[in-house]
Amino acid sequence: MRRLNLALAGLAATLVGTAGATLGAGAGSGATNASPIYGVTIPDGYRGWELVAPALEADPLNELRAVVANSVAIEAYRAGTLPFPDGTVLVKLAWKRAQSPEFEPASVPGASTTVQVMLKDSKKYAATGGWGFGRFVDGKPVDEAQHQTCFACHEARVQGHDYVFTRFAP
Amino acid sequence: MRRLNLALAGLAATLVGTAGATLGAGAGSGATNASPIYGVTIPDGYRGWELVAPALEADPLNELRAVVANSVAIEAYRAGTLPFPDGTVLVKLAWKRAQSPEFEPASVPGASTTVQVMLKDSKKYAATGGWGFGRFVDGKPVDEAQHQTCFACHEARVQGHDYVFTRFAP
Signal sequence span per UniProt (chains A, B) (predicted)? Predict the structure, then answer.
C-alpha cells in the first residue's frame, strides 16, 4: 500500500508539475512542514548532533556543507553497520561559500541555503530503499518535483553504502 | 611567571630554530603528547562534539575543515558571549580535499592532516590572549617553531572575536 501510495504520488507529481504541489499529505502526513511524498520533517535538536563529515559543492551551487547525524547513525557509522538501522537520521546543512574576511585562503559558511534530511524506516519507505527524504529552505519543504529526484540520484550514484553518499570523516 | 616562561620559551625557540625543538616541557608539561609552549593535549571525545562550522582552505593546503567545540564553547557561541569563558575548548579537524568518486561536483574529506586545539585559560595563558594552542599530526604535537606562529596570526587577523577565527554557522 505504501509502495502504491508512493507510485501514485509520483505520477500525480509528474502530472501536476512543480507549481505548488501539495501531495505530501498523500504519503501520510498533513503537516505543513513535512516533505512531499515522504512526510519527513526537520528533526528537533539536529544542530547539536555529531559531525559525520564536511563537504564542498562546486559551482553553480558553490556551497559548504556538513552532515550531522543522530546517535543511531553515528553508532552505525563507527561500527560500519550496513544497511543503516531503522531510526537512522542524517541531516545535511548547507551554506553559501563565502570568502573569509580575515584569512584570504579560507572559505567559510555564508548564508544558510538548505537543510536536507534522510530518515531510515525500512517498512515505511520500502519503495525508496528504506529512506525518506526531506529538502527544506527556510524551514519549509521544497516542492514535490524536487523530492522526486532524491532517491533516483542516490540509487544511481551511491556505491555499496546503502544509498548514503557521506562517509564518516576520520 | 607564566608570562616569563612563555617569553623564555619563545626566545629559546627562536634560537633553536625548527629542528627537533622539544622545549614544550619548559612551559610546564612533560607529556609527550602535549604541545610545546602551551602543554595543550588533544581532548578526549572531541570527535563527538558539536559542530561550529566547516571551512575550506585553498591551495597549497587544499583542505576541508570542521571546527567542533565543547559545551562551554557552544553555549558561549549561542549566547554571543565574548570573550569566551575559561574552559572553552575548540578543535579544528582538517582533511585533504578529495574528489567524490560518486558525485562530480562534490569534494569530500580525504586523509586526515592536522588536529588543532584552542583552550581558554585566562590565567595560565594570559600572555597569549588567554588561549593555549596545540597543533597535532597523527596525534603528535608539531614543533615549537610552528607553535610560535599560532597566537601571532590570531592576534593580527581576528577582528573583535577573542582571537577566534571561526564563527558559528547558522
Answer: 1-21
What's the CATH number for A2-161?
Answer: 3.50.70.20
How far, in Å, are A77, A120, B165 from residue A72 at the CA level?
9, 10, 32
pTM of the predicted structure, to 2 decimals: 0.83
ipTM value, please give it: 0.82
Name the one residue in this structure whose C-alpha cell is 566547516: B54
Residues of chain B contacting residue A53, judged by C-beta atoms under 8 Å apart: 66, 108-109
Residues A17-33 have a mean pLDDT of 43
Contacts for A11 with CB less than 8 Å, ≥ 6 apart: none
The C-alpha atoms of residue B97 and residue B95 are separated, in whole angstroms, by 6
If DSSP codes are grouped into helix, strand and coil, which group holds residue A74? helix
Distance CA B11, CA A19 (A): 68
Asked if B51 and A55 come within 8 Å (Cβ–Cβ), the reply is: no
Which residues of chain A are within 8 Å of residue B167 when distances are taken between CB atoms? 108-109
Peptide bond into B60 cis (omega under 30): yes
In what helix (H) or strand (E) does residue A33 lie, and over which residues does it extend?
none
Residue B62: its chain A contacts at CB < 8 A? none
Output DSSP code: residue A43.
P
Interchain contact, B58 vs A105, CB within 8 Å: yes
When CB atoms are compared, the residue of A50, A66, A170 closest to B112 is A170
| Best of B90, B97, B108 to mutate (most A CBs within 10 Å, chain A) | B108
List the beta strands (DSSP E) in B21-155.
Answer: 50-57, 63-69, 89-99, 106-120, 131-137, 140-141
Query: How is residue B42 annotated by DSSP?
Result: P
* CB of B166 closer than 8 Å to CB of B55: yes
Residue-range domain boundaries for chain A = 2-161
pLDDT tens for residues A81-100?
999 999 999 999 999 999 99
Residue A21 has pLDDT above 90, yes or no: no
Q: Could you read off the pLDDT of B86-106 as tens digits, one per residue?
A: 999 999 999 999 999 999 999
